[in-house]
Amino acid sequence: MTMELDLTPARLPxxxxxxxxxxxxxxxxxxxxxxxLGIAIGVAAIVAVLGLSASSQAGLLAEINQLGTNLLTxxxxxxxxxxxxxxxxxxxxxxxxxxxxxxxxxxxxxxxxVQVYRSPLIPAINTNALEVQATSLNLPSVLAxxxxxxxxxxxxxxxxxxxxxxxxxxxxxxIDEVYPGEKVWLGKMWFYVGGILSPAVLAPEIDTSVxxxxxxxxxxxDYHTSVTGHPVPGQPTMIYVRARNSQVGAVQSVLAQxxxxxxxxxxxxxxxxAALTAQYRAQSAFNSLFLGLGVVALIVGAVGVANxxxxxxxxxxxxxxxxxxxxxxxxxxxxxxxxxxxxxSLAGGAVGILVGxxxxxxxxxxxxWAVVIPPLAWGGGVASAVIIGAIAGLLPALRAAxxxxxxxxxxx
Amino acid sequence: xxxxxxxxxxxxxxxxxxPVHALRGxxxxxxxxxxxxxxxxxxxxxxxxxxxxxxxxxxxxxIVRVSGIDVARLDDRQLAALRxxxxxxxxxxxxxxxxxxxxxxxxxxxxxxxxxIAERRLRAERAxxxxxxxxxxxxxxxxxxxxxxxxxxxxxxxxxxxAIVLADEPTGNIDSVAGAAILELLQQLNADxxxxxxxxxxxELASRLGRQVRMxxxxxxxxxxxxxxx
Lengths: 412, 230
Hints:
CATH architecture of chain B: 3-Layer(aba) Sandwich
Distance between the termini of chain B: 24 Å
Mean pLDDT of chain A: 87
Oligomer: heterodimer
Low-confidence stretches of chain B: none
Largest interface: A-B, 36 and 37 residues
Largest sheet of chain B: 7 strands, mixed
Radius of gyration of chain B: 17 Å
């Protein structure tokens, strides 16, 4: 006799599949956790690197914005013969005549090999790579930097043997407080330390400078320049210009012309904020190293997951046989093990994302940056976990599906 | 009388060197409501016979019909569906998931039969009641005796009310007292209408079942129903 039988295999609904696939992991939680650890480390490294890099970039951009993107600098370029150009003495005044220019400050490297030392007993060769510069009195306000200790030069101290130290200069000279009578040796005589500047983000060259007033430089350090044969004080080597925000581009385009009408190509104009941003972008190339390490961890994690799955298939042959006897198709066995592998990897990925995000939050908060986790970081973390789980689980899943039911049942 | 399982001149040769002739022309019919024992020493081909009857293995020659369907015409997926709905298995080693309760073990037996979880649990409760384990439904197999475990496995095989239950040495891993109880249970379930084929090497056990089919070297040497000596 013949009966009409429905011989289409039943589909396993998603919730049943999830239950079946997670059963293997729940049975051996320690092994599952250890093999997911590799994935977790890799994903955490990638998320943290991307998150920290985005957060530090956001922090830097915020800082730059706060310092103002309207600062332009004019430096001495090179002449046709390759020597350092000499900017005209009148350049700062010429620039300040430009209508959108709000303020101008300038510095000049004091020539004649004047160096700064803690005392006359220091060998002359130990210069600490510091520069002595004569400066205009409005430098801190133009650079949007502040005086950390003591006070800046004023009309009175600019003519006296008084210096103000840049942040790094103070550190290298071993001076962190300004005491009355604190002195440094400038090769010929003692200068009093009047103040210490905070780091100047937009003009890092100031950090390694020791600043004196122009009058003082002329009076005590033999500071003379000879442009046309006559000694002229105040020839600038760097001019700092604040322009109105809306006119920065326009000012930048005419700045060289205004600073050095005769040879505009010998004046080097730049925008420190833009340069900083660009420099930052170049630095983030170092991140690729850490990303590479994260990828290596992921690969190691993938090998761990694949290993776990292969052992799992070997150990659970009788379960596979039983499931086939209960009516599971080959595809259902394959899907079960593939899903298990993806779940395992995904669990690792989730932990990794959590750790990476936490690391970013802690580090960024400690440095007062905005916490930025790019979608690429966590999205990529989830996606790579799923892909790794699928790849690592494919071979074991195919093996499990290929196993004949009797062969699977025979092994106990 | 309805024929549930029909084997006609079934042979099974394992492609080894030298080839192993596990079944040499076995013809056997199992009708609905039967409780049959296939008995023979180890190596007589009874396990292969169980696998072929349960469609876990395809015969080399001959015809196997389950519920009237020639299984040679079915592909792998259709065979799986046939097993899911029409054949129940009981194994010597129970094959229970240790981390799941008895109820879940029985319910998961219906996983591939296209039954929703609520219905699976309902069937599992009924099946556990039929084997007298309703009070142990939420215990894990690890906390159970061998006899209880085998009852859970029998409940799993019965839960979907398959056309036939194939039991491979169901008392092989338990002590004789529990084994006797299992035998009693099988007889009782058979009295309730289940068709059961028990495979065993234990002649004494086989003698207490309604029908004994004796096997030796891949052939049926006697069948108590037909009373013919081959």
